[in-house]
C-alpha cells in the first residue's frame, strides 16, 4: 500500500495497522485516534494522508497554539528527504511573529498591537507593497517544507512582508500547519478559506482534547482595566464616558468587597450597562481607537484599556441570553475580574467539521472517544485506540490507598502524610521527578508543611511553577530545570493542567518519575456549578457530570503522566497519590491500568524500580 511505503521509519508496534486504518477510513469517515505519547502519531497520520495529495486534496494540520506549528512540518521534512517526496508545506504564524515593520519599533508588541499597527500602516508598508508588486513563488516552493523561521528568513531576504507571503504561498501548499483559530473561529477562517478549499482539504486536529475548552467568545476585564481607562480619559473631554467607567468601577468594588478571596459569583451585565449606554460605549470605543492611533504614531504599543472596556461591554450585550455563555465575577486578592465565559463547544464546533472533506482528531488523552465526539459535535467517525506500547519491565505504577485530596481543604494530617510519602519516594528513587499537584491550593498546603525544604535537605534541586507565572519566566524555569537535571537529581513541582504538566517535553532521563498529589477536580465554585448545569442540560444528569467534571480532571492527570514517557523505550515510575484513581482506572493510560499495584503510603520504601543503578 502506498501509504505504508511512504512511512520514512522502520515501523514500530501498531504503526502499520494504524496507517492502514486511517488511510482506508478517510474515504468514508472522520477518524478519532487515541494513541499514547511516544507512539509517533504525527508521522503515522502524515503517511496515511499524504497519498491523498495526488488526488487533489490538501492537508490542514491544526495545533492548539502558534508555537506548536513547526512540529508537523519538521516531520514532513523527514518524509521529503528520506522518501525523496516532492511536497511543499509550511507553518503559518500570526503577525506577532511575522511582522517586519513591528520589529523596527523595538517594543514587545502583542497580537492585538501588531494587528492594529498593520491595519493602520499596511498601505504605506514597504514590505507589503513590494510583495504586491509580485514575486516568483517557484524558487520558494522548490525549497520543500519550511518551518516559520525559514519563511521569515526568505521574506526578509526578499524584502517582502513575511506574514502576507504566507498567504501568497498558500495556493501552492500541499500541507499547511496552523493554529486552531484558523479553522474553528469564523473571525479568522476567511483568511485561509478564500485561498484553500475546505471541501478539498483533510483537517487534522492535533491534541484534540483541548477542543472542549476553546472558550472562543471569552473575554476578561479587571479593576486594573477600569483604572487605566480612567487615566486615559484625563486627556479627553468626555464626561459621559467617564461617568460610565466610574459607575462600573463602583459596582465592581462593591462586588469585590462582598466576595472572599478567590470566591466567584455570577453577574448580570444589565446591572452595569443598559441598552441606553450603547451610544456612550461606541463613543468610548472611538476615543480608545484615537488613543491607539496616537500611541502608534509615537512609536509605542497601540493599546487602550478604554477600547478594551467598550468592546467587552458591547460583546456582553450581544451575548445576553445566549445559552452556553456565563458572566462571572472573580476576586483575586484586591482585584476583581469580570469574565464573559463561553462554555459552548459542541454547538459551535459541530458546524465546522462538515466544512472539510474529512477530519482526523488525535491525542494521547482522547478517551473515552464517544464522550469526546459528543462534546465536539462529531458524527460519522471511526475510533482508533492504540493499545499499550510500553513494556511491563520498563514501567512501575502504584496507587496509594491511604492518601487523598478529597474535600474542600487538605487536612493538616493528610498534607503531612503527602510530604512524608514524597520524601520517602524521592529517597528511594533518586532520579529526576515531577510532583504534579491537583491545584495551586494543594501545592501551597504541601509547601506550608515544608515540602520544598524537605526535598532540598535530601539533596535535590527544586523548581516550581507558581501561580500567574509569565510565559518568559516559565520558559526560564523549565530551561534551568532541564540543564540542572543533567547533573543533579531535580524535582519539578507544578499543578496538573498547568504549563509544565501539559505540553512541556522531557526526553530521556530528564524525567523518570512522577508523583501525582490528588486528582485535579475543579474546586466547587459558581463557575463550575454553571458549567455542570450547562452540561447536564445538554447531555442529562449523569453524562453531564461525567463529561463536564470527571473526564476533564482525569485528562489533566493523563497529560501529567505522559510527561515521563516520550518513546516506547523510556523507563519510568508513577505514583498516583489518591485512592480514587483506582475507581477511575478506565480513564487512565493503558499502562497504568494494566501495571498498577495498590499499596499503602508506608510501603513506598519497598517499591520495585525499572532500573538497577
Ligand atoms: S504588511 Fe506585513 S510587515 Fe507590513 S505592517 Fe502588516 S504585517 Fe507588518
Description:
With 613 residues, the chain is of the alpha/beta class. The chain is built from 26 helices and 18 strands. The strands form three sheets. Strands 3-4-2-5-10-1-11 form a seven-stranded parallel beta sheet, with helices on both faces. A seven-stranded parallel beta sheet has the order 14-15-13-16-17-12-18, with helices on both faces. A four-stranded antiparallel beta sheet has the order 6-9-8-7, sandwiched between helices. α16 (278-297) runs antiparallel to α17. The chain is globular and about 75 Å long. The two termini are 45 Å apart. 43% of the residues are buried. The model has no long low-confidence stretch (mean pLDDT 94). Residues 95, 99-102, 117-118, 121-122, 125, 127-128, 161, 163-164 line the site of iron/sulfur cluster (SF4).
